[in-house]
């Protein structure tokens, strides 16, 4: 055999061997993480009665596995309120999905996933938000944490970050005037796939420290005997630069049928890290929050039916972070119900962590 041809054959075989082994440098590995939070809550109702409680609200473990640089699995299991027995406490599989990351501009997730709606639904570890409890907005308007069975497509291109989700729909027969769509989440349990929910989110990340964007969600929510089309529009912005923090979120839900036809609300946070003024490394962040929401903002009955579920909430608080992954929190607020101007005073203490 011609020696040049032989050399070319050897080089081709060797090159093919190198190409086939490009993943040999990648080592499969398990990822282990988690977060949790302990809360002390004191509430004085409009009649002057005071209640106090101490609760390890959430204990969450995350387990992931990377098969290759592109293929991985991610999961999250949450225990709420220490134990589960006789309808008390909750044990939930909040995430469990196969993830394929083709490139920065495209990837997908399939399994138990989170719709991309608002700032906290996907990123809700205690050190990442102000206040001991998650904002009321993320309870009454955007029901955080919202998860279910489905598939998402995501990516980042030219300072824009997007995510498109198709997942199980809501149960409209569990909607209520006092809690909006919150009770309609199916949480992946033998979820009805007849009418999927569609969610699309777009964020702009082109300025340092700024996230600005919004999402739109549509679902023909269906129960056992009826249905109700809903659409959710929300906008959000978050600005974290040097020592200054600002957050704003607004959401609106429209309902096709029923006595209440609209839920809406907003909140904003302003905060500043004063550690330099105190000449310490520990982050000390006082903050101010204002919230306004109404789960039955528009009803067929009108009048008091629209006032009884509208609340305004002023809050001041403090977050102390000895390290970025650990936070000690305190806050005090007055929540006022529009109907009869009923005031509830709330004082909360908490400690949270993530790893």
Helix/strand layout:
Layout: H1 3-20, E1 29-44, E2 50-66, E3 71-85, E4 88-103, E5 106-113, H2 137-140, E6 148-157, E7 160-167, E8 197-204, E9 210-222, E10 227-241, E11 244-255, E12 260-272, H3 275-278, E13 283-299, H4 304-307, E14 310-323, E15 326-337, E16 342-354
Antiparallel strand pairs: 1-2, 1-16, 2-3, 3-4, 4-5, 5-6, 6-7, 7-8, 8-9, 9-10, 10-11, 11-12, 12-13, 13-14, 14-15, 15-16
Key phrases:
355 residues; mainly beta; Porin; 16-stranded antiparallel β-barrel; 4 helices; 16 strands; 8% helix; globular
Offer a quick outline of the entry:
The protein has 355 residues and is mainly beta.
Structure notes:
The protein is mostly beta strands and 355 residues long. The protein is built from 4 helices and 16 strands. It has helices spanning 3-20, 137-140, 275-278, 304-307; strands spanning 29-44, 50-66, 71-85, 88-103, 106-113, 148-157, 160-167, 197-204, 210-222, 227-241, 244-255, 260-272, 283-299, 310-323, 326-337, 342-354. Strands 1-2-3-4-5-6-7-8-9-10-11-12-13-14-15-16 form a 16-stranded antiparallel beta barrel. Strand 1 and strand 2 (50-66) form a beta hairpin. The longest helix is centred in the N-terminal third of the chain and has 18 residues, at 3-20. The chain is globular.
The DSSP helix count reads: 4
Low-confidence stretches: 1-22
Number of domains: 1
Strand content: over 45%
Largest beta-sheet details: 16 strands, antiparallel, barrel
Give the SSE order as H and E letters.
HEEEEEHEEEEEEEHEHEEE
């Amino acid at each position: 055999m011609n020696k040049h041809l032989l050399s070319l054959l050897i080089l081709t075989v060797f090159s093919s061997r190198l190409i086939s082994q490009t993943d040999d440098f990648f080592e499969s590995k398990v990822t282990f993480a988690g977060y949790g939070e302990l809360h002390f809550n004191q509430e004085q109702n409009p009649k002057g009665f005071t209640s106090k409680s101490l609760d390890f609200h959430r204990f969450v473990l995350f387990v992931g596995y990377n098969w290759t640089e592109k293929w991985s699995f991610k999961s999250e299991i949450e225990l709420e309120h220490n134990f589960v027995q006789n309808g008390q406490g909750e044990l939930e599989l909040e995430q469990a999905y196969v993830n394929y990351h083709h490139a920065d501009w495209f990837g997908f997730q399939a399994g138990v996933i989170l719709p991309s709606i608002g700032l906290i639904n996907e990123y809700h570890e205690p050190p990442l938000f102000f206040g001991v409890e998650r904002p009321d907005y993320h309870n009454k308007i955007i029901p955080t944490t919202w998860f279910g069975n489905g598939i998402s497509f995501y990516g980042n291109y030219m300072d824009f970050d997007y995510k498109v989700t198709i997942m199980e729909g809501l149960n409209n027969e569990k909607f209520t005037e006092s809690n909006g769509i919150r009770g309609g989440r199916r949480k992946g349990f033998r979820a009805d796939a007849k009418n999927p929910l569609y969610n699309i989110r777009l964020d702009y990340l082109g300025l340092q420290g700024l996230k600005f964007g919004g999402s739109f969600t549509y679902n023909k929510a269906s129960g056992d005997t009826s249905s109700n089309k809903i659409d959710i529009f929300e906008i959000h912005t978050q600005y974290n630069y040097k020592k200054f923090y600002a957050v704003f979120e607004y959401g609106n839900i429209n309902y096709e049928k029923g006595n209440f036809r609209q839920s809406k609300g907003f909140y904003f946070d302003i905060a500043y890290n004063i550690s330099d003024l105190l000449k310490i490394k520990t982050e000390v962040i006082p903050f101010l929050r204002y919230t306004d929401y109404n789960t039955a903002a528009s009803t067929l009955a009108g009048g008091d039916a629209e006032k009884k579920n509208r609340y305004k909430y002023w809050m001041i608080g403090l977050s102390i972070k000895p390290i970025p992954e650990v936070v000690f929190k305190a806050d005090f607020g007055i929540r006022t119900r529009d109907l009869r101007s009923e005031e509830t005073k709330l004082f909360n203490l908490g400690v949270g962590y993530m790893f």
